C-alpha cells in the first residue's frame, strides 16, 4: 500500500501492510496496547535489531505512563485492531531505542531490566555514555539513526479490563501492593506452594526496587525501602531452598550480605545452600557467623552443623567404598584388565 506521512507527526511515514477491523480505538490514560513488533535498520539489508516473536512474548505499553519511546504510543494510536503497519521514524524519535531495547531484552532473558542502573539525574545521563551490554545497541546509542518499526496490534484494553502489572503502577499503587503480595506469599508458604509463593515475594521486591531506583542510595528514602526489601528476599530464598534452587539462594544471599553484613538470617540460609552443594568449609564459616551474630540461633546452628558432619562422613564412606570397588574390579585403569601384581 501507499506510504503516507502521519498527520501532524513530523518525521514519521506509515505504510499499512494488512488492514485492521472497526474504528480507531478510543484511548484514555491507563489503556493497554498489546502488540508484536519488529525493529529494523534503515539500510539496504533492512537489518533486524529486535523481533518480539523471536523473544516469545508480545509487547505491552500503557497509555500515559511515559514510556521512554514516546513515538510508539503515537504509532499504535493510529492503528486498528488486527492491523499490521510499517513505520519509518526519523532519528528525532529513536534516540531512546537502545535503552528501551536493553530493558526488553533483559526481561526476555529473565533478568531485572534495571540491573546495573546508576542513580543519576537525567542531565548527567545525557552526557555520559555507558555500555548497554549489547554491541548492536551500543552502536545505536552512539549514533542515533532512523529506524523502521513493523507492528501488529492485537488488542486495546481499558484500565478496568486487566490486572495492572507492577511496572505500570504509580508509586502509591506499588507501595500498597507490597504488603498484599507479602501476605499472599506467606499464605502460599503455609500451603507449601513454594514456587507460587516465591513469585509473590519476587513481584513485591521488584516493586520496591523500582521505587529505590528513584532514590539516592543509603539516604533515608532508600533505606526505608531497603528495610522492606530484606525480609522479602529472605522469604524468597527460603522458598528456593525448599525447591532445591541452591545456587540461586547463594546468589541472592551473597548480594544481600554485601549490603547488610550483620544479617544472621541471610548467613543461615546461605550456609544451608553451601551445605547442600557440598561447600563444607563455606557452610561451616557461615554457620559460625550466625552463632556469633545471633546467640539465640545457637541451637539451630548446632543442629545444622551436626547434620552437616554426618552428611560429610557418610559421603566419605560412600566414596571410599566406590573407589575401592573400582580398583578391585580393575575399572580404575580406564577399563583395562588388571596387570600382574595389581589386585
UniProtKB/TrEMBL annotation:
GO terms for cellular component: cytoplasm. The keyword Repeat applies. The keyword Cytoplasm applies. Residues 29-154 form the AIP/AIPL N-terminal FKBP-type PPIase domain. It is found in: Cytoplasm. Keywords: Cytoplasm, Repeat, TPR repeat. InterPro entries: AIP/AIPL1/TTC9 (IPR039663), PPIase_AIP (IPR056277), PPIase_dom_sf (IPR046357), TPR-like_helical_dom_sf (IPR011990). Pfam families: PPIase_AIP. This is Aryl-hydrocarbon-interacting protein-like 1.
Amino acid at each position: 500500500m501507499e506510504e503516507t506521512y502521519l498527520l501532524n507527526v513530523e518525521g514519521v511515514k506509515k505504510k499499512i501492510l494488512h488492514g485492521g477491523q472497526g474504528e480507531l480505538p478510543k484511548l484514555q490514560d491507563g489503556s493497554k496496547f498489546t502488540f508484536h513488533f519488529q525493529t529494523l535498520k534503515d539500510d539496504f539489508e533492512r537489518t533486524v535489531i529486535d523481533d518480539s516473536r523471536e523473544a516469545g512474548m508480545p509487547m505491552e505499553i500503557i497509555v500515559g505512563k511515559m514510556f521512554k519511546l514516546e513515538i510508539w504510543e503515537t504509532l499504535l494510536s493510529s492503528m486498528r485492531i488486527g492491523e499490521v503497519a510499517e513505520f519509518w521514524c526519523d532519528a528525532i524519535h529513536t534516540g531512546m531505542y537502545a535503552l528501551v531495547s536493553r530493558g526488553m531484552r533483559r526481561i526476555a532473558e529473565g533478568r531485572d531490566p534495571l540491573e546495573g542502573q546508576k542513580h543519576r539525574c537525567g542531565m548527567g545521563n545525557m552526557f555520559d555514555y555507558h555500555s548497554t551490554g549489547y554491541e548492536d545497541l551500543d552502536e545505536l546509542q552512539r549514533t542515533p539513526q532512523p529506524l523502521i518499526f513493523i507492528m501488529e496490534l492485537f488488542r486495546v484494553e481499558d484500565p478496568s479490563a486487566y490486572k495492572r502489572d507492577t511496572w505500570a503502577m504509580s508509586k502509591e499503587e506499588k507501595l500498597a501492593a507490597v504488603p498484599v503480595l507479602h501476605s499472599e506469599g506467606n499464605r502460599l508458604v503455609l500451603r507449601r506452594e513454594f514456587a507460587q509463593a516465591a513469585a509473590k515475594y519476587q513481584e513485591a521486591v521488584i516493586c520496591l526496587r523500582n521505587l529505590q531506583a528513584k532514590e539516592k542510595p543509603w539516604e533515608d528514602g532508600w533505606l526505608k525501602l531497603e528495610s522492606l526489601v530484606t525480609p522479602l528476599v529472605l522469604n524468597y530464598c527460603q522458598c528456593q531452598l525448599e525447591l532445591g534452587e541452591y545456587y540461586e539462594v547463594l546468589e541472592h544471599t551473597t548480594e544481600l550480605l554485601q549490603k547488610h553484613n550483620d544479617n544472621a538470617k541471610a548467613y543461615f540460609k546461605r550456609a544451608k545452600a553451601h551445605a547442600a552443594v557440598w561447600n563444607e568449609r563455606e557452610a561451616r564459616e557461615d554457620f559460625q557467623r550466625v552463632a556469633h551474630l545471633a546467640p539465640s540461633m545457637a541451637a539451630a546452628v548446632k543442629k545444622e552443623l551436626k547434620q552437616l558432619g554426618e552428611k560429610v562422613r557418610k559421603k566419605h564412606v560412600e566414596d571410599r567404598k566406590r573407589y575401592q570397588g573400582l580398583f578391585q574390579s580393575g575399572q580404575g585403569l580406564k577399563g583395562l584388565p588388571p596387570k600382574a601384581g595389581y589386585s
